[in-house]
Structures are given as C-alpha cells and as structure tokens.
C-alpha cells in the first residue's frame, strides 16, 4: 500500500531518489536543496538505500562524478540549485552529448548578483539549451513523481538524455505537504533495472567514451541529441500514461485549467500554477473568462500543446520567473516561436514576475489580467511587462 | 630452460596509430603506465585488463580518441579539462556497486592537474578513492600551443611567458603538485621520468597495487614545446635527472620526513651543470645569455631539494 507522509519538497525528492535505487549519488550541499543530499545520506547510512554516496567538493565535481558513474553504466542521481547548477553548466552539455541519463533534482533558485536564495527559475531556464529534459513541479507530490518519470524517460533507449526536475525554492523545498510515497514494488516495475547498451566501462568489452569530434562528425552527434529530445515527446507521454495507470496520478505536457471557453489564458510553470488556478477560480466567480495552463515539460517544449491552446483564446499571457536580458522571458520566446507560422494566433503577452522570491499576489495577477484585457481592445503596449516592481526604489 | 619473464609486459593498451608527435615524451608515459597497470592488475586480481582510464582534456586525449578511431584497448573516458579526478571518482564508485574488481587510472597534463584540475584532484585524494592519478608533466599547456602553466619552470620561454626587454621568460618557480598531493597523507606519492622507464614502471605498478589513492608526477618532454629534436626526448629527460632539475622520489602516507630518493648522488653533489640540460632546449635559449637568471634557477632548485630534506650542490 502506498504510504502518505507529510514532507518538504526536498524530502520528496530524496524519497524519489530512494525509490529509483540509483547506484551512485554525488552531491554538494547548496541552499535550498541541501536537505536532498542530507536525507539521501541518512537513507544510505541506515541501509535503506544501497548506493555509493560521493560527498564531492563542488557541484562541478558532483556532475563530473555522475558522468563517470553513468558512463560506467549505473543509475545516477544528484541535486543542486542556482549557483551550483551554474557551476555544473559546462558538464551539463557533456552529459547530454555523451547520452548519459543522469537525473537531477533542482530547488529552483535565483542567481547572483545580488546573492539571493529564494525562488525563481533563472537557474534551470539558463540551462535550457544543454540537452537536458526539463520538468517543473507544481507541488511536492509532483516533485517526487516527476523525478521517477524523469528516470523512466531519460533511460528509454529512444531518448538516453539526462533530465532535471525543478521544484520552487522554499515554496516547495521547505514547505510541508502530504505526499503519497508509491509502493517500492510498483516503482521497480515502472523503472525496471537500468542496463545500458551504449555506456559502460567494462574491461571485458572496452569502449572509448568522450571522443574528439572533428567537423566531419560533430554536427551529426549534435543532431542525434536533437533527435533524442524530439523522441522524448512521445516517450514522456507514454511514461505519463503508464504512471497514471500504475499510480493513479495524471500528468500532461501542458495541464489546462478552465481553458475551454477562456478568452484569456495565463500560462506558467511550477508552484505558481497553484496560485494561478486559485486566481482563475476567483475571477470565474466574477464572470471573467479566464483559464490557466501549466507547462510541466519545458524541454522538449510542448509546441503542439501550445498550438492547441492558442486556438482557444484571444490572449496567451505568459507569467514567468526568469528573464533573458535584452530579449524578454524565455518561456514567452518559446510560446511565440511555437505560434509564429500559425495563420491565426492570439495576442501573446510577456510578464516577468516573482523574481528572487518576491511573492506573487492576486493584486499582481489582477494587474497582468488588466493588461491582457486592455490588449484585446487597444493592442499591446510593451514587449515585456515587469509585474510587481517596487518603482519607488528603482 | 625456464624462459625469463620480460621486465616490462608485452601487452599493449596504448595502440600504435595514435597521433602524438614524433618523439612525444607523454606518449611514452601512456604506454609504460598502462603496461605497468596491467601487470599490477594481473598480480593483484589475476586479470591484466581489470582497469579503466579517465582522461583529462589535453594532448594525450586529443591524439588518442578522434572519433571514429581510438588508440585505447582499455575502457576509457574523457569528459573535460579539469575533472578527470572527479570523473574517476564516479567510475570507481560505479565499479564498487557493479562488483568489478580493479582500479581506475586517471591521466591529466600539468595544466589539467596543477592548475584548473587541482580542486577536483584534492577532492578525489581526500575522499580516498581507489584511483591512481598520473600527472604527465610537460611543463606547459602544450595542447593549446605552449602557454605557461604553474608547472612551467623558472626562465622557460612559452607563448605567454616570452622573454623580452622586461622579461626573462617564466618568472615564477615551478609548482610541485606531488608535494601538494602528499599533504593529503594518501598512501603513495611519487615522481618519475620517461628517462628511467624501469623506475617509472615499478612506481606505477606499486601505486596500482595499493588500496586507496596514489599520485604520480611524471616528467615527459614535449618536442615542439621545449624546442627539441624528436630524437632527443629521452636524452633531455635524462639530463633533468642528472643535473638535479627533476627529483625522483617516493612519499608514503604523506610522511615527508621519510622520502625515498632514487638516483640521488650520495654526496648530494650533482656532477652535470644545469646548463647542459638547458642548452639542448630552445625554450631556454635566451637563458644561456643570462647568468643571473641561471643562478636564480639554481637557487630555486636547491630550495626545492631543501624542502625535500636534502642539501645539494649544483656545479
């Protein structure tokens, strides 16, 4: 029987790792995800998880050790956030290029400067082009489930790419919620044993990994990463279906909420989706035709799902906790490019919101909604709207 | 009549066909070290193939693993420049869980070890991974075209330490990573040279048979980087030993009061002057016209020996 426990998001991530039975974990503590390696080291210390836990001296070495372990052919896990993820940046490309299905939990946190330990998505968004699959969790249950799903997808032979699951700093990492812990037997059935045919360092079958790719081969190797990420769309959907059958919880690339007759659909990711759904409920009671959509899988980007969503509404308003300086929000750019060749497309609005742990309030969402309503009548005034800025201290 | 076993195994893991320069000193290290490793594995585990190699970015990686070819007959992985020690840690952990009996060999050049990879090396040594780390020391960033590293000796020309009106060439003393490694109090630290292949072989073999981490700093001249003719590699390396420039020693468990020296003159007097070592190499050409700089180099070498616990005389 599945067991229900009240736990923090970090504990949920550690439980996911325990259930997935990785053979090697390498991690370095960083706020807000420190509890993940702490909890895992407890599991290992108590014999509840039979794994080598390498207490590395940096995040760069954490991911490097994971690459070594994964290349040697074992299931591998790590966790980090923010600056730690940024320190891994170089090796993230290599993990994907070497087709190593490492899974990583990220307590989504802002990047310096100024140093800030609170939530936004700048850390993972900045790694969107590394070739890692990206999931964003709305709550602690999703943090656990999406890490299990990440292993399933990453290790699929049609994919073989690393995957990261983000869950918002403090809002999820440090907040306790009831979380259902799936049965170990069912998880074992769901994930199976990891036996790679492409990555091993077996003296009886010596292979060379991490070669030099001349111009004659480099581009094709990168294309194979592209192809694997494209394959991941179908594999993720299959994994979601199988997960639902086994564990009863439904996941979608994009989860829609009250969108069917919506004029304005607000799109977001992570825990903000929870706030947004409540806001939609409130506005619906007031008779406003508004809906919400949550992007659960950001890489591969759910292009078809966004196109379907775009057919429903007059405005797609993107609420995102990240910024690409000199351009705008990264999610906005992905939504916009998904629709660029559509004959009819809605107005697409770009809202930067809640950076560095600033609370996203209903007042802020009202402000965004006001801009969206005005845009229907009067058009779009600005390329990028910053919501909730304290103008008096600028 | 019993056939005597050759002193160095005939097994090869670094295959002919690699693309290293003619006369490459580090290629000799690759070949000898893997042979020694194989023999150690045979003696320890009864399986000469029971090892895997993690390689830092650098000449030796570039010349041995150009897709779709490989010069390696052992399981081999390269990830990046600064993380060979961390990658080796991961491989070792995975092997433990897979139940493989064997040892991991990590290779890095002086740039990838003394400079950018020093932290990962320290972490690996401190955590006591069962890894032999070999730093092949050719005393500059040769893969990128001869830029100075912290292992470049005083006075040497490189493209980033050019001699000029206001410069004698490299102006800092050489960093001795072997001593930094010894400070971790790991089971075994040694220096070696391609000019003494039996000593090198013995040390790598010894390191490979120890349970726990070991570090070797091995001198291997670079033909283009040192501005030497390809046939002079071994001769130059030999002169480094004979003039006192390259010490051969072993430190066990970090006990620097009990350093074991090899080929050290009993009276502490080196017979050949440093100039003989310098004059064979284009990288020191400018130094021969600068007796003050040579004197400074001699002082630094004496100081290095003093740190090792030896008073030496250099002619």
From TrEMBL, chain A:
Per the record, a Pfam family? POR_N
Any one Gene Ontology biological process term?
Answer: response to oxidative stress
Say which enzyme class the record assigns.
oxidoreductase
Q: Where does the record place the Pyruvate flavodoxin/ferredoxin oxidoreductase pyrimidine binding domain? A: 16-240
Q: Does the keyword Nucleotide-binding apply?
A: no
Q: Which SUPFAM superfamilies match?
A: Thiamin diphosphate-binding fold (THDP-binding), TK C-terminal domain-like
EC identifiers of the protein: 1.2.7.1
Q: What terms describe the molecular function in GO for this protein? A: pyruvate synthase activity
Identification of the protein by name: Pyruvate synthase subunit PorA
Automatic annotation (TrEMBL), chain B:
Q: What is the protein named?
A: Pyruvate:ferredoxin oxidoreductase subunit beta
Matching entries from SUPFAM superfamilies are given as:
Thiamin diphosphate-binding fold (THDP-binding)
Q: Report the residue ranges that make up the Thiamine pyrophosphate enzyme TPP-binding domain in this protein.
A: 57-218
Which terms does the record give in the GO molecular function aspect? oxidoreductase activity; thiamine pyrophosphate binding
- Which lineage is the organism of this entry classified under, starting from the top rank? Archaea, Methanobacteriati, Methanobacteriota, Thermococci, Thermococcales
Ordered alphabetically, the record's keywords are: Oxidoreductase, Pyruvate
Q: Which organism is it from?
A: Thermococcus paralvinellae
Q: Which GO terms describe its biological process?
A: organic acid metabolic process; sulfur compound biosynthetic process
State whether it acts alone or in a complex, and with which partners, per the record: Heterotetramer of one alpha, one beta, one delta and one gamma chain.
> Out of the domains of life, which is the source?
Archaea
């Amino acid at each position: 029987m599945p067991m229900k426990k009240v736990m923090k998001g970090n504990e949920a991530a550690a439980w996911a790792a325990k259930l997935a039975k990785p053979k090697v974990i390498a991690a370095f503590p960083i706020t807000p995800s420190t509890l993940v390696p702490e909890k895992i080291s407890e599991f290992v210390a108590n014999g509840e998880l039979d794994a080598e836990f390498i207490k590395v001296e940096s995040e760069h070495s954490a991911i490097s050790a994971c690459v070594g372990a994964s290349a040697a052919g074992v299931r591998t896990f790590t966790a980090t956030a923010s600056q730690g993820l940024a320190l891994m940046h170089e090796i993230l490309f290599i993990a994907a290029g070497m087709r190593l299905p490492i899974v990583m939990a990220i307590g989504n946190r802002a990047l310096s400067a100024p140093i800030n330990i609170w939530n936004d998505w700048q850390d993972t968004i900045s790694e969107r082009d590394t070739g890692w699959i990206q999931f964003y969790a709305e709550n602690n249950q999703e943090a656990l489930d999406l890490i299990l799903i990440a292993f399933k997808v990453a290790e699929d032979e049609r994919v073989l790419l690393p995957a990261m699951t983000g869950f918002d700093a403090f809002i999820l990492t440090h907040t306790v919620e009831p979380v259902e812990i799936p049965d170990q037997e069912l998880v074992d059935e769901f994930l199976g044993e990891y036996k790679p045919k492409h990555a091993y360092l077996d003296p009886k079958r010596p292979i060379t990994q991490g070669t030099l790719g001349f111009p004659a081969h480099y581009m094709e190797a990168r294309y194979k990463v592209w192809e694997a990420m494209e394959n991941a769309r179908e594999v993720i959907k299959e994994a979601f279906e199988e997960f639902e059958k086994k564990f009863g919880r439904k996941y979608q690339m994009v989860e829609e909420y009250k969108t069917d007759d919506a004029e304005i659909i607000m799109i977001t990711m992570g825990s903000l989706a929870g706030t947004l759904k409540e806001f939609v409920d409130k506005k619906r009671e007031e008779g406003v035709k508004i809906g919400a959509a949550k992007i659960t899988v950001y890489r591969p980007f759910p292009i078809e799902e966004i196109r379907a969503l775009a057919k429903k509404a007059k405005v797609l308003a993107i609420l995102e906790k990240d910024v690409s300086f000199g351009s705008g929000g990264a999610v906005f750019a992905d939504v916009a490019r998904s629709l660029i060749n559509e004959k009819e497309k809605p107005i697409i609005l770009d809202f930067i919101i809640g950076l560095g742990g600033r609370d996203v309030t209903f007042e802020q969402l009202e402000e965004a909604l006001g801009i969206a309503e005005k845009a229907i009548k009067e058009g779009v005034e600005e390329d990028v709207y910053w919501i909730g800025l304290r103008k008096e201290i600028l | 009549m019993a056939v005597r076993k050759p002193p160095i195994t005939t097994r090869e893991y670094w295959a002919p066909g690699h693309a290293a320069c003619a006369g490459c000193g580090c290629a000799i290290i690759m070949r000898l070290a893997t042979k020694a490793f194989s023999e150690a594995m045979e003696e320890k585990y009864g399986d000469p193939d029971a090892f895997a190699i993690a390689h830092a970015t650098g000449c030796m990686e570039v010349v041995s693993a150009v897709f779709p070819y490989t010069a390696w007959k052992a399981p081999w992985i390269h990830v990046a420049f600064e993380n060979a020690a961390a990658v080796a840690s991961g491989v070792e952990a995975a092997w433990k869980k897979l139940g493989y009996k064997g040892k991991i060999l990590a290779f890095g050049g002086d740039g990838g070890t003394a400079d950018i990879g020093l932290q990962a090396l320290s972490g690996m040594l401190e955590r006591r991974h069962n890894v032999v780390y070999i730093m092949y020391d050719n005393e500059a960033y040769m893969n990128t075209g001869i830029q100075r590293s912290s292992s470049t000796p005083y006075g040497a020309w490189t493209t980033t330490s050019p001699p000029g009106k206001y410069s004698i060439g490299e102006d800092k003393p050489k960093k001795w990573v072997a001593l930094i490694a010894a400070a971790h109090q790991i089971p075994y630290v040694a220096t070696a040279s391609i000019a003494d292949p039996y000593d090198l072989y013995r040390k790598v073999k010894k390191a490979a048979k120890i349970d726990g981490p070991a570090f070797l700093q091995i001198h291997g001249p670079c033909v283009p980087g040192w501005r030497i003719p390809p046939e002079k590699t071994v001769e130059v390396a030999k002169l480094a030993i004979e003039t006192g420039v390259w010490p051969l020693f072993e430190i066990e468990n970090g006990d620097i009061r009990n350093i074991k020296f090899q080929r050290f003159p009993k009276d502490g007097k080196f017979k050949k002057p440093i100039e003989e070592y310098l004059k064979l190499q284009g990288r020191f050409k400018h130094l021969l016209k600068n007796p003050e700089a040579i004197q400074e180099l001699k002082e630094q070498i004496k100081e290095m020996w003093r740190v090792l616990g030896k008073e030496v005389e250099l002619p």
